[in-house]
Amino acid sequence: MNAGTVSAVMTADPITVSPQTPFKDIAALLTGNGISAVGVVDKTGALVGVVSEADLLPHLWEDRKPRWRDRRLARKATACVAKDLMTSPAVTVDAEATLATAAAEFARTGVRRLFVLRGGKVAGVLSRRDLVAVFTRGDADLEREITDRVLRDRLDLGPDRVRVQVRAGIVMVVGRVERRSDVDPVTRLIHELPGVVEVRNRLDYVWNDVGSRNSPALPSANSRPGRRRNR
Prior knowledge:
Low-confidence stretches: 218-231
Strand order of the largest sheet: 1-7-6-5
Strand content: 25-35%
Mean pLDDT: 87
Order of helices and strands: HEEHEEHHHEHEEHHEEHEE
Helix content: 25-40%
Number of helices: 9
Shape: elongated
Largest sheet: 4 strands, mixed
Structural class: alpha/beta
Number of strands: 11
Distance between the termini: 45 Å
């Protein structure tokens, strides 16, 4: 399983209800399980909507049908079953979507959770807290994955050529690669890993194959990593 996908961090098999589930049963499910919403699925297992705590609160209004209220919310104030309480369509994300895609969807919609679909069926639920939790990953664990899975396995770069240090999620990369075009993929692949806050790429290169092909880049004796002099 790719650690950078929604399926790796979601809560699997979330609680769902049918369109005919009564109001009080939904309230009991939310409070009894410490959750803020349930998905509503039809007989085929398709997600048709979501009932959240906010959908139940109109029942507490003193005036159940005030004229100044939004009509949609006013209907919820007298609704007794899930199909009349739910918000539809539900905001969803695919199980194999990247965490970056999910984060963008949270920002676009402003919702508190995304229901996760696999093959059109509910596979899980993803909260904003689930995404934030990836940044609690330990530096040592992150450093091992970068060194082994990214640099060695994917880019064929051993510690004799490229070294990595991770502090508070910030990745420092130093060393020398063969070509200038090899530098950016290092940054991109590391940045895709969950838990990375920032990548500071200080890689040098031998050949400048960007723009002027086969032109060697030989740094001066006093140059620092990342400063190059092209010939």
